[in-house]
Design brief:
single chain, 152 residues, mainly alpha, 5 helices, elongated, membrane, Cytochrome B
């Protein structure tokens, strides 16, 4: 079950990135060209936030199903805290949750704004920060060949 969720979580990141880039592009072009905020802009923002929520749900399931070192490990836990375990147990989850919150706030604020240009600007700002945080915290596997870009 854990490995299946890990594969799904790994592939879902590509949905998040694709929807995020499209939503960011639509927000940027809408803001810079002063075009109306149309249903496609709202839909792409919803797709981005929805895919993030799915990714967070899968990540939380993995987090609580994970085989983390126990507290009884003592000194071994201290050594593990400096490695990959610390990244996933603390840094990855905290920043990804922050990115999900920022994306949701951006979508909510962009929907509530009265002016179309302000809607695009808020979406661009919040989606951009959320996407940047996501890109930074994805374990790309560039330096670790055991962490592939596509799991099977």
């Amino acid at each position: 079950m854990y490995n299946t969720l890990l594969v799904i979580h790994s592939y879902t990141r590509w949905l998040v990135l694709v929807f995020g880039l499209i939503a960011l592009y639509r927000a940027y072009t809408g803001y810079s060209n002063r075009r109306p905020y149309v249903g496609a802009d709202n839909g792409m923002g919803a797709s981005f936030v929805g895919s993030i929520h799915l990714q967070v749900l899968l990540g939380l399931l993995l987090y609580f199903m994970g085989n983390w070192p126990s507290r009884a490990a003592g000194a071994a836990m201290e050594a593990a805290a400096r490695t990959e375990v610390r990244f996933f147990k603390m840094e990855h989850i905290a920043v990804m949750l922050l990115a999900a919150v920022l994306a949701q706030v951006g979508r909510s604020l962009s929907k509530k704004a009265s002016d179309d240009v302000v809607k695009h600007k808020k979406a661009f700002t919040y989606f951009g920060i959320a996407l940047l945080l996501i890109l930074i915290m994805i374990p790309w596997g560039i330096w670790n060949p055991e962490r592939p870009l596509f799991r099977f």
